């Protein structure tokens, strides 16, 4: 696993261009809140498998949250606090989904 500086992966000079293209953005950050990347010879590696499992959970949670959002938005008695909580969870879920999309597209780069 590679823990790049904020400007990486573009400035990861030890990697060749072909290896840099194989970087996978993992669905979690390190302890400092920076993105983590993986270079692996196989999609079946234990860390790749773990990342796939985490992404599946994130996508499932996002789908469930979306269903809950539809119900809550239809409830005219929903409080401002409930709606604000919902909006925050939707933002988190959307962030997860966008990160997964970037990872699967091979871009692997977080927005600045």
Describe the structure.
With 112 residues, this protein is mainly alpha-helical. 53% of the residues lie in helices and 9% in strands. It is built from 3 helices and 2 strands, in the order H-E-E-H-H. A two-stranded antiparallel sheet has the order 1-2. Strand 1 and strand 2 (35-38) form a beta hairpin. Helix 2 runs antiparallel to helix 3. The longest helix has 29 residues, at 46-74. The radius of gyration is 17 Å and the shape is elongated. The two termini are 21 Å apart. Residues 1-21 have low confidence and may be disordered.
User: Roughly how many Å is the radius of gyration?
Assistant: 17 Å
Mean pLDDT: 81
Give the termini separation: 21 Å
- Major β-sheet strand ordering: 1-2
| Biggest beta sheet attributes | 2 strands, antiparallel
How many beta-strand runs? 2
Number of H/I helices: 3
> Level of helix content?
40-55%
Structural class from helices and strands?
mainly alpha
> Regions with pLDDT < 50 over 5+ consecutive residues?
1-21
Task: Write the element-wise H/E pattern from the N-terminal end onward.
Answer: HEEHH
Shape: elongated
Proportion of strand residues: 5-15%
């Amino acid at each position: 696993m590679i823990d790049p500086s904020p400007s990486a992966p573009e400035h990861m000079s030890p990697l060749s261009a072909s290896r840099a293209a194989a970087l996978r953005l993992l669905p979690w950050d390190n302890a400092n809140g920076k993105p983590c990347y993986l270079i692996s010879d196989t999609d079946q590696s234990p860390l790749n498998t773990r990342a796939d499992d985490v992404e599946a959970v994130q996508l499932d949670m996002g789908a469930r949250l979306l269903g809950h959002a539809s119900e809550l938005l239809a409830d005219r008695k929903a409080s401002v606090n409930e709606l604000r909580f919902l909006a925050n969870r939707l933002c988190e879920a959307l962030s997860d989904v966008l990160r997964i999309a970037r990872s699967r597209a091979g871009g692997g780069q977080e927005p600045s």
